[in-house]
Amino acid sequence: MPKAVALYSGGLDSTLAVLVMQRHGVDVTAVTFMNHFGCDISDKSSCSKDPFAASLKFGFQVKLAHLSDKFLEIVKNPRYGHGKNMNPCVDCRILMLKEAKEFMKITGADFLITGEVVGQRPMSQRKNCFPMIDKAADVKGLVVRPLCGKLLPVTIPEEKGLISRDMLLDFNGRSRKPQMALAAELGLTEYPAPAGGCLLTEPNYSYKLKELLDHNNDPEYKEINFLRVGRHFRFSPECKIIVGRNNEENEAIKSLSDPGDYKFRVPGHGSPLTVILGKATDMAILLAASMCARYSDAGRLPEVSVLVTKGDASYHLTVQPAGKEILDQYRIEKKGTVGAGK
């Protein structure tokens, strides 16, 4: 029985690619790659999906692997450039194929499969882009793309007779109708809605990431994980203030922060949880307290008592809520973007 390793997100296309191969007798092991920028089970970004739902129903294995520092490096320095925002789509695909090739060696698989469709994404899924990506990843001829394989050159597994070209499909473009029809045929009744892309394709997130890297080219993952939460303010090159926007973000800030971080709340009122990341000077503490007061339900009062905690120590600061001019002076946001976190 031929064996394959699938690059697997848990989305419709990658699931269909696995099922098409299974239907024709290929033993598939799926690999889901994780990073700190969404697109995996570990978070709630626009394209994160559960990779295990379909695997349990249709009987294929899913392995999880974290790309970690390797992925951060291509975000900072992509050989093939960024997309419209901070997304290094081509470099990302190359990295995942390189890592999948290692899984192929470990499992004794014969080839790789992906759920890519010609013309579906502008950077990494162009027909003329596939050969370049495969060559750069050192997997030339080893990648089978079941959903559009009839439109692509013959692969090594086809030449060896492991699979036949009749098994492959000729999907192309951005329409999901062919995929939905195939899903019904294969008994795949539950699948995620199409996603807009990973966090690196989102303008506001990308702006905050670039701003962080401009001040610190080797940030801690804690700082990166904070980028998806709250209103962000830059007090100094070494100091940021983050203010929660709702209870869910308050809980996220509580979870992501360390005991030694300065945190702020307004007792007795609806209040954001506010945290200082980096060097907390006396001025930074006062500013964070005034911002916390401003976004609390007590924000219209002339003075507000703010609870400041750091580890086991706590005290109260009485401050004036920050005015709009102060907020605008320090706020990190892409100018002209609607809903950037006022």
Question: How would you characterize this protein structure?
Answer:
The chain is an alpha/beta fold. It has two domains: 3-186, Rossmann fold (3-Layer(aba) Sandwich); 202-330, no CATH class. It is built from twelve helices and eleven strands. The chain has helices at residues 12-23, 52-58, 68-76, 89-107, 129-136, 156-159, 177-186, 203-215, 221-226, 247-256, 282-294, 324-330; strands at 3-7, 27-34, 61-66, 111-113, 143-144, 231-236, 239-243, 263-265, 274-278, 304-310, 313-319. The protein has a six-stranded antiparallel beta sheet, with helices on one face. A five-stranded parallel beta sheet has the order 3-2-1-4-5, with helices on both faces. Helix 1 crosses helix 7 (177-186). It starts with a strand and ends in a 12-residue tail after the last helix.
